[in-house]
Amino acid sequence: MTSRKAISTEIKLRLFSDSAGYCQNPDCLQPLYPAEMGGDKHIAEMAHVIPHGEKGPRHEERPMEGFEADSFENLILLCPTCHTVIDKAPDGYSRSTLLDWKNKHLVALAYSQGIQTYEDRSQAREAVATAMAENNAIWKEYAPVDGSSFDYNPESEAAKTWENRMRGVILPNHFRIEAIIKKNQCHMNGNEQEVFARYQEHVRGLSARHICGVAGEAIRYPEAMDGIFT
Q1: How far apart are CA 168 and CA 193, in angstroms?
Q2: Who is most buried in 56, 73, 161, 162, counting CB within 10 A?
Q3: Which tens digit of pLDDT belongs to each residue from 104-150?
């Protein structure tokens, strides 16, 4: 039997980041943080394109060399229903099909959400402004240390609300902002490119803490992001 090792935190973060919080089946695109579950719990499942062993869905498509079952390249983030479907009916979901889903996910998601490449900077600014304003309002109210309603007691209602808002609102908004900006990098100047890179690292740090439960310091939110595309 093939031995298994834990999937690394880095790979988990890449999967969640690339999914932007949505199932990577283009015919599904279900939110992986369902509102009906409070928005603070995810239903995401890391599905193997090719299985560990010599049996299982799509095992006959295993590459001859350089294959690692738990690599980022061999994993796709799906909702439980889609994970079950692709493994129960593997003949309809080949390796190339699943990798195509993954590679084109952000394009499919952008299309479904109306995210596009805009004609000018002002339109791109308008597209990110609402999500940025919502995140800022939540931060001012509930964020640790800075938030006016924050209570250092982790069992307090304010602290619980902060965690719920982080997972259910702030992170999904960050993923959406990232997707919009990536589609509109043609309108960014050199300084904004650097600011966006720092912003992405900030989001990765938040994801590590609030999705993967990995303690550590995320870099602070780059204040220059507030002026992106202005």
Answers
A1: 27
A2: 162
A3: 888 888 788 888 899 999 999 999 999 999 999 998 888 876 544 44
